[in-house]
Write a structure and sequence with these properties.
The protein is an alpha/beta fold. It is about 45% helix and about 15% strand. The chain is built from 11 helices and 8 strands. The chain has helices spanning about 15-20, 35-40, 45-50, 65-80, 90-105, 125-130, 135-150, 165-170, 195-205, 210-215, 220-230; strands spanning about 5-10, 30-35, 55-60, 85, 110-115, 155, 175-180, 205-210. It has an 8-stranded parallel barrel, surrounded by 7 helices. Helix 9 links the parallel strand 7 and strand 8 (about 205-210). Helix 4 (about 65-80) runs parallel beside helix 5, helix 7 (about 135-150) crosses helix 8 and helix 9 (about 195-205) runs parallel beside helix 11 (about 220-230). The longest helix is centred in the middle third of the chain and has 14 residues, at about 90-105. It starts with a strand and ends with a helix. The protein binds cytidine-5'-monophosphate (C5P).
Length: about 230
């Protein structure tokens, strides 16, 4: 599995997204499309971006009863995206159903499927007070990652700080897709635990997800090239 840089296209319209992607010329970066853009524009935005030659991580974080997730995944597989995801807290049964749905909906090669463990916006106090989970964040993340692996998923979304532990627990081939990336000297925005692309490489991340450090850069193509240089070499 080759390492790659995924750009988080956190825009609210197709127009802004295509304007942005147009700045890369012949380069066709791997992109992440999240809820905001997908709910604004629907499946058409996926078809449009695919037609332009990009690979797509569709970040919709499904979490529902297994049967509903299975049927939804069957539909998403039909869009021909490259990576999809679910919440690991939906249980092993739900994650297995997600894989089944993807397999049913795929024409040959199914998309990769990864799990969100605990959102990085959740802290241990919230886990304890709101969710009645008393274990440490690290134990919960590793347990959810192992559940995802047992359910047949391909990897997890996690902090680059957790990538090495996830590989230790789940194996080196289990993918770690890591947001929270900033260049040295960049503003951290609302991210609390960040790493540079170069450090994420050293930590063993398989894919880094980079949003504002590229989308808000004066020259996004140059910022993307810098990510590639630092992360892939
Ligand atoms: O702009 P920035 O680089 O912080 O964007 C990171 C992207 O990764 C955003 O789309 C954000 O929603 C997503 N993400 C994250 N932390 C997670 C899961 C997803 O930052 N745990």
């Amino acid at each position: 599995m080759g390492k790659d840089v995924i750009i988080a296209c956190d825009f609210d319209s197709a127009e802004k997204t295509y304007d942005f992607l147009g700045r890369f010329g012949e380069d066709k970066p791997f992109v992440k499309i999240g809820m905001e853009l997908y709910y604004a524009e629907g499946p058409e935005i996926i078809r449009g971006i695919k037609e332009r030659g990009h690979r797509i991580f569709l970040d919709l974080k499904l979490h529902d009863i297994p049967n509903t997730v299975k049927k939804a995944m069957k539909v998403l597989a039909g869009l021909g995206v490259d990576i999809v995801n679910v919440h690991a807290s939906g249980t092993v049964k739900m994650m297995k159903a997600a894989v089944e749905g993807l397999e049913e909906g795929s024409n040959g090669k199914r998309p990769l499927i990864i799990a969100v463990t605990q959102l990085t916006s959740t802290d241990e106090e919230q886990m304890r007070e709101d969710l009645l989970i008393r274990e440490s964040m690290n134990d919960v993340v590793m347990h959810y990652a192992a559940n995802a692996r047992d359910a047949g998923l391909d990897g997890v979304v996690c902090s680059p700080h957790e990538a090495a532990d996830v590989h230790r627990v789940c194996g080196i081939d289990f993918l770690t897709v890591t947001p929270g990336i900033r260049f040295a000297g960049d503003s951290r925005g609302d991210q609390s635990r960040i790493m540079t692309p170069e450090k994420a490489k050293g930590a063993g991340s398989d894919y880094i997800v980079v949003g504002r450090s590229v989308t808000a850069a004066e020259d996004p193509a140059a910022a993307y090239e810098r990510c590639i240089r630092e992360f892939i070499g």
